[in-house]
Structure formats: structure tokens, C-alpha cells
Write a structure and sequence with these properties.
- The structure is a homodimer.
- Chain A is of the alpha/beta class.
- Chain A folds into two domains: about 120 residues, 2-Layer Sandwich (Nucleotidyltransferase, domain 5); about 170 residues, ATPase, nucleotide binding domain (Nucleotidyltransferase, domain 5, 2-Layer Sandwich), CATH 3.30.420.
- In chain A, the strands form three sheets. Chain A has a five-stranded mixed β-sheet with strand order 3-2-1-4-8. The first copy, chain A, has a five-stranded mixed β-sheet with strand order 11-10-9-12-13, with helices on both faces.
- At the A-B interface, strand 10 and helix 9 of A face strand 10 and helix 9 of B.
Chain lengths: ~300, ~300
């Protein structure tokens, strides 16, 4: 049963975004505010957004971290000092209704599945290439949460046990190479640390200021070093997608994150390396690899849809 | 609805095993024969086993390789020259009934799920540590086949892109390190190729004759080199289990293969490394890691259960 007006709130490390969806899935209201620093203030901020956007018939909330199946935020790398926050229970008591809670990555996957790039696809993986890598997994027409609700932490698949250290405490996690930050790391360590000179120029001359966008811009200009880094980045992205394919054999990958602005630049090497790294590539159609469609609103839209996709 | 007598046939690289299950899942008849070399002879052999074990009410067949969702064996590393064999259709025509076909690893997972180590567990991964590594994935109470039927090829997850070459054509596949063959490789390359001397002694003095069992025997005797290799092997097994946990967050892993004879020897380092390599290990109960219960009959029992778990 589709609720008539569905409210979704995506709590991010810096801002909260709230949307109201009509029965067809279109955004009919939207509001943003900064994310406060303390647990109590975050709950209060979400409740205020919910009040400001009334009326609504259902509510879902996406949180940036590990969320249990009972709606508890266990840990959140981008919300300092916040742990074991019973988001579902606290908001449910406050608003006197059922509040669906899941991780932002799971919400984004649900959104792309229901109203975005993966509409009608019942086996796909959403891969968000940002500071780290977030994931959402849909298998057989259902979002996979896992025993504890922690499925989809695909950025911490280890792809090189002797690789660079990850803030998580291990080495060689996929997100060290294949996230947006990984692209910058590959650029800065290029040719034994000489880096991609043109990217540094575009960053105002400061190598420490290089972002993914500068590397992409340099590559689009035709800079050969930047193109080489983009190719190497494509290899690392593809390697993780191949690993996921070996486990799940999905129909599609949806890539989210800022790189979507330069989709073709990145998709070409990703698809090429995917074919080279896949097991038995000649025996199957390859999964579709495409960028997400919903941009920064994916999390909030997915939160609004949680009541349905739960 | 449970069929009264269910026939399952597991076609292996060297032998075929057939079992008949009673309604409770107990094996009430069993027959074996060698696996012939040609496609036509394999179909004939399976049909003969089916004839010899009559009466039965349903039939399932497990094949050693990549099986499509429509029962076609696309490729089989251990059946030379056999490809694109329409097992389901050919046997269905021959026997005039529906014949369920899936990969041997998926069958083994179904068997351990329904009548073995993972009874009642709806989210688990079966990992068979043999010459390679086979996998079967159960998510939310359903076997995961994937878009092409190729889900569960977990042995070809790349865990070190600069690692040793794999017969599949890539480098550093998980099964290079963590299969039964991987254990032997770790032993033979130990200390720059000096190898585990005691294991070679147990193999009759010939380092080329060392098998996993010799390494395990040496470790159980207390040989420090063998124990070090078993520890290193445990690290590689754990690394892949951690990667799978980051994707799926399962309740349990069931390990199959010959190592089950020395379960505790291997489980201790695997569990220890699992805790060290897992993302956010302190925030969740760890999945149960246990060895399989059905031994070499798992594939045939699972084939017999395909009609139900499909």
C-alpha cells in the first residue's frame, strides 16, 4: 500500500535534507538544515523538520553509519562522538508513530531502485564513491540488510592486504583506492609522488588542494598523466565491482557520488577493466554499469521510501 | 510440498554420486559411478542412475561449473571439453519430467541449509575449500543465483592484484591462497621456498607430494613451521570471509572440503584473524564459523533438495 505523502529525512555529516514524496514518487516539498553536533540535538532537528513538513503519512530516516535492524545508529564516522543512538525509538516516541531508520547508503540504493537508475532491476548493487565507499545491495527484489543490518559495507572489502592503511584500522580496503578520496590519492602518489602536475595547477598550484574534480578536468583537457591516473582509478573501481559480481552476479551496478558529473570519462576505463578482471567474461552478458540519477537527494528520497521497501 | 522420494545426482570431475532422500531428508539409497568423458555419455550415465534408483518423485542434478538459470552447464573446469551442455533440457526429454539443475556448490549450500550445519539459518555463506573455492549464498531465506546463475564464484574474488597467477587468467584470486591447494602453496613457498620440512617428510620425503593433510599432520605434531603456515592460511581464509561479511553481513559461514577433518586446528586461526580483519568488530556479534556436516554427499543431497529450494 503506498502512503499518500511520504516524508524522508537524510541526516548527513554536515547537513540534513528532508523531502516529501507524492504517491508517484515525485518530490513535492523539500527542506534543509545543518546537522547539529549532539545526539539530543540531532533527534530534535529531525523532529522539527518533520513538524515543518506536515502533513505526511509515513516517515523514514537515513543515518550516516552502521544502523542496526532495530533502528539504532551504532557508529557514525562523520558524526563525532555519536554512538548507540536509538534513532527509531527516540523519534517514534517523539512523533508518536512508526519511524523507519536505515543507513544512508541503503536508503540511496532503495531510491535508485524505486525511482532512479535501477528502476525495475531486482538484482543490483549501489556503490557510492565519496570520501569512502558506501553500498546498498538488492538481491531477488529485496534490500539486503544482513544479520546485524551492516550489509553493504563494501568499501572495507580488503583488495590488497599490504596496501595503504585505512582509518578503519586495516590495510588495503577497497575505498583506499576506488573512492573519490582514492582518486586523489592515486593522483598525488603518481610517479613516486611527483603527482599530476596539471591537476595541481588547476587546484591553484597547491598539490594538497587537488580534488577529484581537478584530476577529471585535467584528464578531459587531454593531460596524459591525468588520463593514466583515471585509467588506474578505473582498474581499482572495476576490481571491486568484479569481486561483487563473483559473489552476487548482479544485473547492474549503479555508481553514485560526485564523479557522476564526468560519467563517460570514468565509465570507459571502468568497463574496460571490468571485462579484463571478470571471471569467465565470455560466458555471460556483463552487468550494466551506470551512474545514479537522483544525485544528492537520493538518501532523503530513499528514506521516504523505507516504509515500502522495508 | 515435500516429495516423498527425492533423487539427487552430483556429477563430479571424476565420479557421479546419486542419493534418494526420504520425506525427512534421510538418505535411503545411494549409488556411485565414474563420470564419463563426453557430453552424451554424461547425460546417459545420469539417466542410468535415475533408472537404477527408481521409484522417485523428483530429480535434481548438480554440475561442477557455471550453470545458467535454465540448467545449461556453460563451462566446467574439471570436465575437459564440455561446454554449453543443456543438462536440464536433455535429461528432461530423456526422463520425461522436470529436472532441476544447479552448480554443485549451490547444491551443497542448499543441503547444509536444509539438513546440515546451517539448519534454520536464513543468511549464510557456504565456502568449499577444495582444489579451488566454491561458494553458495543464502540471503533472507533464499539461495542467491544471480542474473546469470553465476553467483557464488567467491574463489575468484581478487584479494591481491599483484598476487600469483590463477588458472582463470587473473592474479591474486582468493582461492590461490585459501583453498586446499592454497594451503599447499603456502607450505611450499614458506621461507622463500624452503618449505615445511616436516610436511615433506610426512609426504615420503618428496616436497612435490605434499598435500594439505601433511601440513595439518605436521602442525598437529607441533611443528612450528607447519603451525606458522596454518596461521598464515587462517589469515587468508579470514580475509575472504571478512570481505563477504562486509558485503552480506551473514549469520554464519559453513566451511566445506577436506580440512573439516582438522576443524579445530584451522578454526582457531581463522576466527582470530577474522576478528582482527573485520570492519567494526566490536559493534556486532561475529558470524558463526563452522565446518560442514554432510561431507562428500552434500552435493547429491542438495541436488535432491533443489525442487524445494529453487
Amino acid at each position: 500500500m503506498t502512503s499518500s505523502r511520504r516524508l524522508g529525512i537524510d541526516v548527513g555529516g554536515t547537513k540534513c535534507m528532508a523531502v516529501v514524496l507524492d504517491p508517484g514518487g515525485a518530490v513535492i516539498a523539500e527542506q534543509r538544515r545543518q546537522t547539529p553536533k549532539s545526539s539530543g540535538a540531532i533527534i530534535e532537528a529531525v523532529a522539527e523538520l518533520a513538524g515543518a513538513l506536515q502533513p505526511w503519512d509515513s516517515i523514514g530516516v537515513g543515518m550516516p553509519g552502521l544502523v542496526t535492524r532495530t533502528g539504532v545508529l551504532r557508529a557514525a564516522p562523520n558524526l563525532v562522538g555519536i554512538e548507540d543512538l536509538a534513532v527509531g525509538k527516540l523519534l517514534g516516541d517523539r512523533l508518536a508513530c512508526v519511524v523507519h531508520v536505515d543507513s544512508d547508503a541503503t536508503c540511496a540504493a532503495g531510491a535508485e531502485w524505486k525511482v532512479g537508475a535501477a528502476r525495475g532491476v531486482d538484482d543490483f548493487v549501489m556503490v557510492t564513491l565519496g570520501t569512502g565507499i558506501g553500498g546498498g545491495v538488492v538481491v531477488g527484489g529485496a534490500l539486503v540488510r544482513g544479520a546485524n543490518g551492516f550489509a553493504g559495507e563494501i568499501g572495507h572489502m580488503v583488495v590488497d592486504p599490504d596496501g595503504p592503511p585505512c582509518p578503519c584500522g586495516r590495510r588495503g580496503c577497497w575505498e583506499r583506492y576506488a573512492s573519490g578520496s582514492g582518486l586523489v590519492w592515486l593522483a598525488n602518489t603518481f610517479r613516486d609522488g611527483r603527482g599530476v602536475v596539471r591537476a595541481a595547477e588547476l587546484a591553484g598550484g597547491d598539490p594538497a588542494a587537488v580534488r577529484g574534480q581537478h584530476v577529471a578536468d585535467a584528464a578531459r583537457e587531454g593531460d596524459s598523466d591525468a588520463l593514466e591516473v583515471v585509467g588506474e582509478y578505473g582498474r581499482w573501481v572495476a576490481l571491486g565491482l568484479v569481486n561483487l559480481t563473483n559473489v552476487l552476479d548482479p544485473e547492474m551496478f549503479v555508481l553514485g557520488g560526485g564523479l557522476a558529473q564526468d560519467a563517460e570519462l570514468f565509465l570507459t576505463p571502468i568497463r574496460e577493466w571490468f571485462g579484463q578482471l571478470l571471471y569467465a567474461p565470455e560466458l555471460r552478458p556483463h552487468p550494466v554499469i551506470a551512474f545514479a540519477q537522483l544525485g544528492e537527494r537520493a538518501g532523503a528520497i530513499g528514506a521516504a521510501l523505507l516504509a515500502e521497501v522495508h
